[in-house]
Amino acid sequence: MDIPLDQILIQTINGIVTGMILALVASGLTLIFGIMDVVNFAHGELLMLGAYVGVVTLGLTGNFWLALASATVLIGIFGALMYVVTLRPLLGRDPLTTILATFGMSLVLQNYALWQFGAVSRKISEPIVGHFNLFHLDYPWYRVAVALISAAIIGGFWLFLKFGTWGIWIRATTQDRVMAQAMGIPVPWVLAGVFAIGSGMAAASGVLFGPFGGVDATMGLNWILRAFIVVVVGGMGSLAGSVLAAILISLLEAYASLWVSPSQAIIVSFVVLILTLLVRPTGLFVATPK
Amino acid sequence: MSRAHPLAFWSVFVAAIVLLIVAPLVLPEFWRRFVTEVLIWGLLAMSSDLLIGYTGMISFGHSAFFGLGMYGAAAALLTTHPASLWAALLYGLIAAAAVAAVVAYFSTRLRDIYFAITTLIFSQIFYVIIFTSTAWTGGENGLNFDQPALAIPGLFSLEFTPKVLHWFVLAAVAGSYLLLRRITQSPFGMVLQSIRENEARTRAIGYPVERYKIVSVMLSGLFAGLAGVLYAIQNQFAAPDFVFFLISGQTVIYNVIGGVGTLVGPIVGAGFFLLLSEAFSRLFTAKYLDPIGLHALDGMSYLVPLGLIFILMVIFMPRGLLGFARRWLNR
């Protein structure tokens, strides 16, 4: 089969753009797992709720950036509350019970959204409407902007972890929760804060993705599945691993969609996952397996 | 100690079976069907309890085994003339076992949370495959077929009336329960439980833990496939929705609500959950009408209160409804 070079290039850019959104989703998930041993099944639902907050704010104010900011903040607060109410009582129990609790949460949130907003997919209009010329095709600037914004959020978050006071507290808590507590770090606040940050990142990616595929109650499931794959391939708890794996998987899916329909292209990421499990079950991009 | 209350256990068991045998004779059709469905879902949940409650691995992928059981039965019922029940059982179990073998081989390499995620992803792989290979599986529409007769060639042939179907399902579920109970009490089952309690130590003693895990996943998949076959026979269709992850999620919910590690708990959990769904869906459709007129959606909003009940049970009642009887049931 003959695939023209410009198609391949466009798919490369597409892959990187979706990969950056996916990285944003997955880094929240991996952060929450790495620090708290919690697999947040409701992460996709937080993304979906974030997108809906975006839709509502956009409807009220007409400003996309305001919608993005309010979704991030509101869902961040909501995530922290969710953590305090449903997950804090489970601290110290088998980590598997946290899967159950967050799974129940995802069920509640998804069906609440379905009931509240209906099954018809909502649209978020692109804040940047310009196109630029890529070969003979128009490529929207917005997609490029999304990749840059995602990269900026992840980069900013990395800097925050590296140099910010709270970032240092977070890393200390990851290494040794009891010792961190003993050194006077407010561990309960740090944990709630981590959940807030992860939730906010999910919400931001929901709003950013809104203009591509529309917003509906089941969009979270699609993302959580891909984010899980990314997190396993990249190595659970590793931020850099998640980003690399997200881009790798999105690129492969984008290339695969040159030949097969997008709904079948996801099989490629399944294959990557299976190969990873066979060759290196701890994740492709983790230096020293635990 | 292990034979402390055999009499009490078996009399409760027999009483429950007798009640379930009599049920279709006295219940109206709607509730007869309800009880049959609870038994089938209960079997699915019970199969998953072998992993959750005994081996200590949470599977979020049981819909794959269930769904493949359905599609296997569908393949048999569409290709054999006249439709043969035994072929449906055979094909369904083979399909489920084949899938279970693949899933077991890969997912048992991982533990705990990773195992749960891997099984979830595997079930989605099969969902995508079934959903997109329209030529064989009918894609989104699924497959429709006729009910086979309960027959042994040359001996007898019985039409599947609702009552006969109920008794057939009951026999299959009760048989599976006894078999699973025997398995969990056998030396093999003891090894599974010791993996749950302390995997490293079990390995150190010299048991090939991986092999035990693979066999337990395959056994579990086999019983889940049986549930799928029964469901296909009862409803005369196979649809990709039943391979979808939501079914796996409900399986886990039934287990947690009913009490893991009890085998009957999941059946009770399924009954409790489905009864509540029935009640809530009636309450909610009556109370809140959808503002934009999408009445089809009302059917799902009952999951909001149910999900909340589930979360509360995870936090406050982690041993489930039958958790108090766990030791007694496993004697």
What does this 3D model show about the protein?
The complex is a heterodimer of chains A (290) and B (331). With 290 residues, chain A is an all-alpha fold. Chain A has a single domain (5-279), classed as ABC transporter involved in vitamin B12 uptake, BtuC. Chain A is built from eleven helices and two strands. In chain A, strands 1-2 form a two-stranded antiparallel sheet. In chain A, helix 1 packs parallel to helix 5 (141-163), helix 2 crosses helix 8 (187-213) and helix 3 crosses helix 8. The radius of gyration of chain A is 19 Å and the shape is globular. The relative contact order of chain A is 0.20. The mean pLDDT of chain A is 85. Chain B has 14 helices and four strands. Chain B has a two-stranded antiparallel sheet with strand order 1-4. A two-stranded antiparallel sheet of chain B has the order 2-3. The radius of gyration of chain B is 20 Å and the shape is globular. Chain B has 331 residues and is mainly alpha-helical. In chain B, 72% of the residues lie in helices and 3% in strands. Chain B has one domain (6-329): Orthogonal Bundle (ABC transporter involved in vitamin B12 uptake, BtuC), CATH 1.10.3470. Chain B has helices at residues 6-26, 29-55, 62-79, 85-107, 112-132, 134-137, 162-185, 187-197, 199-205, 209-235, 245-258, 264-287, 303-316, 326-329; strands at residues 143-144, 150-152, 156-158, 237-238. In chain B, strand 2 (150-152) and strand 3 form a beta hairpin. In chain B, helix 2 packs parallel to helix 7 (162-185) and helix 3 (62-79) packs antiparallel against helix 4. Mean pLDDT of chain B is 84; it is low at 286-298. Chain A binds chain B through residues 33, 39, 86, 89-90, 93, 95-97, 99-101, 103-105, 107-108, 110-112, 114-115, 118-120, 221, 225, 228-229, 232, 236, 261, 263-264, 266-267, 270, 273-274, 277-278, 281, and chain B through 58, 60, 106-107, 109-110, 112-114, 116-118, 120-121, 124-125, 128-129, 131-132, 245, 249, 252-253, 256, 288, 290-292, 294, 296-298, 300-301, 303-304, 306-308, 310-311, 314-315, 318.
